[in-house]
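Shipment paperwork, digital attachment
Item: protein structure file
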Amino acid sequence: MEKSNGAVEMAAQKDAVQKNLQFVGFMLGKEEYAFDIQAVQQIVKHMPITRVPKAPFYYKGMFNLRGSVLPVVDSHLRFGLPQEEATEASRIIILRHEDISMGFTVDRVTEVVTLGPDQIEKSQPVDGIDNQFVKGIGKLGARLLILLDLPIVLGIAN
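Attachment content:
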């Protein structure tokens, strides 16, 4: 009988783990944002980027990552934030959505965060605020994490 209680308990723990979601957190200025970890292929140090003529204003350009040429979205331009110089902490997060891979510049990567469903609040429309990029808000005590909608941020939404 004790075994079956243990099996039920293990199944309940497994269900709870499956409902939790993981995100890669990063900073842009003083705000913390995050992408679903399943979309993150890798994180690389900032490297030289080649400008591309007539690209959308928020594309920083292209760069060569181990033989693959990838476009890079400039996070500051995309979100209308003041430009900042790349530092030693600056990174490019390589993101994948369906069959598209792109880089996304960030000021620094913070951590991988696990959130339960009760810690995520869906984005609500608010008068006067453009929250098109926001998928939800992660609540970690007093700390808020802006969860981003990947296809919209990268400009590849259908």
